[in-house]
Amino acid sequence: MGYVVTEPCIKCKYTDCVEVCPVECFHEGPNFLAINPDECIDCGACDPVCPTQAIFPEEEVPEEWESYIQLNIDLAAKWPIITEKKDAPDDADDWKEKKEKRDLLEE
After folding, report:
1. Does the chain have fewer CB atoms within 10 Å around its N or its C terminus?
2. Are 57 and 20 in contact (CB under 8 A)?
3. How far apart are CA 63 and CA 51, in angstroms?
């Protein structure tokens, strides 16, 4: 796997990462994005543009969010691909700094 989307993305769902991705590896859920590890080419373009710093190389995912490695695999398998940037939810900035949002993830 290349990169992993983690908890800070929940309820923010900025899509700056999708816009810079050279392949179709991002999948969109109701309030979160996931990366398909079979499509990610490990280029790293998505990491620096994420406004919430939610994207990490797999080997650098913080211990508290290691479960998101498998979660990205599972969610990418069932969610549709997103290939273009979309507007973030109206309240995304309100959620940007919030912690412990895992229970708010809509699968």
Report:
1. C
2. no
3. 21
CA-based nearest residue to 35, from 85, 71, 10: 71
pTM of the predicted structure, to 2 decimals: 0.95
CA-nearest of 54, 21, 26, 56 to 38 is 26
Q: Tens-digit pLDDT profile for the chain (107 aa)?
A: 599 999 999 999 999 999 999 999 999 999 999 999 999 999 999 999 999 999 999 999 999 999 999 999 999 999 999 999 999 999 999 999 999 999 999 99
Residue 47 lies in a domain: yes
> If DSSP codes are grouped into helix, strand and coil, which group holds residue 34?
strand
Write phi, then psi, for 47 (nearest 5 degrees): -55, -55
Provide the residue range defining the domain that includes 60.
3-85
Q: Is residue 54 part of a domain?
A: yes
How many structural domains are present in the chain?
Answer: 1
- Scan for tokens 């998101």, then name that residue: 68
